[in-house]
Amino acid sequence: MTALSVRDLKVHFPAGKGKVVHAVDGVSFDIPEGTAFGLVGESGSGKTTAALACARLVEATAGEVRLGETDITTLAGDAMRRARRDIQVVFQDPYASLNPRERVGAIVRRPLDLMKVGTPAEREARVDELFATVGLRPDQKALFPHQFSGGQRQRIGIARALATHPKLIVCDEPVSALDVAIQAQILNLLARLKAEMGLSYLFISHDLAVVQHLCDRIAVMYLGQIVETGSRREIFTSPMHPYTMALISAVPSPETGLAGVERIRLQGDPPSPIAPPPGCRFAGRCTFATDHCSKVAPVLTATGGNHAVACHRAQDAEVAAARNALVQGAPSG
What we know:
This protein is of the alpha/beta class. It has two domains: 1-15 and 26-215, P-loop containing nucleotide triphosphate hydrolases (Rossmann fold, 3-Layer(aba) Sandwich); 232-333, no CATH class. The chain contains eleven helices and twelve strands. The strands form two sheets. An eight-stranded mixed beta sheet has the order 6-7-8-3-9-10-12-11, sandwiched between helices. Helix 3 (104-114) packs across helix 4 (120-133), helix 3 (104-114) packs parallel to helix 5 and helix 5 (150-162) runs parallel beside helix 6 (180-197). The chain starts with a strand and ends in a 6-residue tail after the last helix.
């Protein structure tokens, strides 16, 4: 079964004087139930906007977002309110995502109150259960957010997201504001909850090392489009797109097996999302680009298995040599 299916999702914002920001420009992917799907890319790639559109926190300009069998882009009023039980969000900043004037027990219970889930007594029991699940004590319900550390606040955010038994949780950079040691604790918690509860995640991050720890499949976004997608193993042991290679080279660590690999440094800045180029959007920063790349947009094309890439030169010897130099010594899974 599929938890979330996205087809040709577009999110465009007016920029004045008739101009349009192409924040997300034709993104498609599926998240099978019980799996974690990572969406990665630099700041401005459109990954967070795509995720918020999937949760209907940003309105889609075009495309389809199916939560189970329901296209939630067509829902309104009570129908959308009911659908919100099934898709919840863990936000990036644990300091800004909790109401500082509200006790944390009430914060976690609020989704249950708003959606009228169970009786008041059942809601309180559910809050106690959630606190224990995320590693907090039920007696801490009476405290305010400022009385918790950043990692504890993110645990509260996770408990709030779990309250309504959602089918999908959108995790928007949930560890980027935390210290490295605390990041590992939160990632381990998310992995445990996924295994024990069969949760499905749409996980947003700019850090490939983070998504490698948690995600089953990964899609790499650049300037509003997916340029490569594949299993965790395919992305890390056989990256096909030059942009993916650059991202991987920037994370030398024991986990990736890439310590000592020379970093691929990108030159220049991404083109404007208001006026994206006609060809490959990465061509202006790609050392392998040709005139054809600048003029003709590549199509996301399957290369075997569940791996797909949008690159005219992905199979060329020059790119293959760079790929082999990058992944030598990388783990097999």
